[in-house]
Amino acid sequence: MNRSDCPISNALDHLGDKWSLLIIRDLALFGKRSYSALQGSAEGIATNILSSRLASLEASQLLTKAPDPADKRRQIYRLTEAGKDLLPILLEMILWSAKHNPGDLAIPDDLVQMAANDRAGLLARLRERIDSDSF
Amino acid sequence: MNRSDCPISNALDHLGDKWSLLIIRDLALFGKRSYSALQGSAEGIATNILSSRLASLEASQLLTKAPDPADKRRQIYRLTEAGKDLLPILLEMILWSAKHNPGDLAIPDDLVQMAANDRAGLLARLRERIDSDSF
DNA sequence: CGATTTAACTTGCATAAAGCAAGTTACTAT
DNA sequence: ATAGTAACTTGCTTTATGCAAGTTAAATCG
Questions:
Q1: What value of ipTM does the predicted structure carry?
Q2: Which of A76, B15, B31, B51 is deepest in the core (most CB within 10 A)?
Q3: Cβ–Cβ of A97/B10 closer than 8 Å?
Q4: Is residue B110 part of a domain?
Q5: Domain count across chain A
Q6: Å separating the CA of residue A95 from the C1' of nucleotide D20
Q7: Which nucleotides of D are covered by protein (CB under 7 A)?
């Protein structure tokens, strides 16, 4: 699993595929918490892939899975602190795409604006929203 | 190729695999410019994969390929401005791994320190190093 | 209470991407 | 002229992704 002792390589060992960061995005930015909500994402991940990615993210300790006390069919997926700490990476990806927008992207301009004015504050507010589940 | 109009998804459409960002890292942080130098990286990319990744990064306009005037066997790979703009993403990956270091990573402490003190200045200096090729 | 839905998966099979070893071509150095 | 180097490509095997259908347990509906 660890290809080298490079910190970038290490991050990519956990996140370097087409789906992991989209799942993190759904949890961190869209407040999704259930398997079916995650499956309903715009990009359309196959159910077996979602299952395997969730398992690997859980193994990497980026998220946790816990049964919903109110509905025993349901599992609740939550970001760990390490998972929440991926917010800056997500933000930089948004800013990069905003800057190099091929023209058809849905850029959240307010967020880009806040990032320019008060990056630290924005990240704090995004994290607070995760913690308080106020999406 | 475009899975959705989400900016994060867009970034991952170009970079979401195990190798692309390592190649960008080698160009941006280690000053590598040739095929053979890139192939010599710690992680050991297979030559056919390196070839296909370079082609896709070039197609995504993150790097350019140009013949070396001094040695006609040689091709020089360089980051475009869009490629250089990936520096913040690389930096955040380093910071994330530094914070969640599994214990065996080679963390550049000086860089982590500078990021904490003067992030914008650090990014400016890293970019300047690329432009002046002073590695 | 039994029948239908819903949630969270798993299984089996097809296709696409990654990885390995060897080979090719054009140029450079000896 | 000969040997080496740089930048690849080719053929084959292995692994990962993707699709469609099926399973299980719990909740809801009539």
A1: 0.95
A2: B15
A3: yes
A4: yes
A5: 1
A6: 38
A7: 4-11, 16-22, 25-28
